[in-house]
Specification:
Low-confidence stretches: 1-25
Strand content: 15-25%
Number of helices: 6
Largest sheet: 6 strands, mixed
Distance between the termini: 34 Å
Structural class: alpha+beta
Shape: globular
Radius of gyration: 17 Å
Strand order of the largest sheet: 1-10-9-4-5-6
Mean pLDDT: 88
């Protein structure tokens, strides 16, 4: 990381040192879009590559980033996952409290074994999830993620919403992250959520 980007990250993390006061106001000041309290994207019920049923509650105590995509995605999906992996590196000692979830929109092609191999390329803390085509549509709708198959010569690609979603350690949806957001801005927001988590507060009393 070049010195300027490192300085920007450190400034963001320093700004988040007082989670109850935020960054100069009377509440947290996030770099990404604060959507706390929205009525959608409350939970999911999907399978991991080992066939285990997974829900948000399984990751309680961690900040969770959720991204929808598909393995044959040429650009947006690998870029988003590379950025998420960079966030984890920037978190340093707090990296183990940051969980990355990749929900496939293409379960017909993204089989469990392929999904496991794909996510492993971005780090051990990236977990792929899938469901039936019907469950996939239901979950995407619940998150207000839009997607559609687009025919190509002999196959298809998928157009889809490129937003990532970030949950706090209590499983509450807090942030929407655009494709243009930087790893540094996300890492600063994740650090703020971790600092203000009930578990962290108990440990530091």
């Amino acid at each position: 990381m070049n010195p300027r980007r490192r300085a920007l990250l450190h400034a963001g993390l320093a700004c988040c040192a007082l989670p109850l006061l935020g960054c100069g106001g009377d509440g947290p000041r996030f770099h990404n879009t604060d959507i706390s309290g929205v009525s959608y994207a409350r939970d999911f019920t999907l399978l991991d590559p080992d066939g285990n049923t997974r829900r948000l509650a399984d990751f309680r105590g961690k900040v969770v980033m959720v991204f929808f995509g598909f393995i044959l995605c040429p650009d947006v999906c690998p870029t988003a996952l590379q950025r998420a992996a960079a966030v984890r590196r920037l978190l340093g000692a707090d990296a183990e409290r940051f969980q990355i979830l990749f929900i496939t929109l293409d379960p017909e092609r993204d089989t469990p074994s392929i999904l496991r191999e794909y996510t492993a390329a971005f780090g051990a803390n990236v977990l792929g999830l899938y469901g039936t085509p019907e469950k996939t549509r239901e979950t995407a709708d619940a998150f207000r993620v839009h997607f559609r198959k687009v025919p190509t010569s002999g196959s298809y690609t998928i157009d889809h919403t490129a937003t990532s979603f970030i949950y706090d350690t209590e499983g509450r949806l807090r942030l929407a992250v655009t494709h243009q957001s930087t790893a540094e801005s996300i890492a600063a927001d994740v650090a703020l959520l971790l600092q203000s988590s009930p578990t962290n507060n108990k440990e530091t009393r």
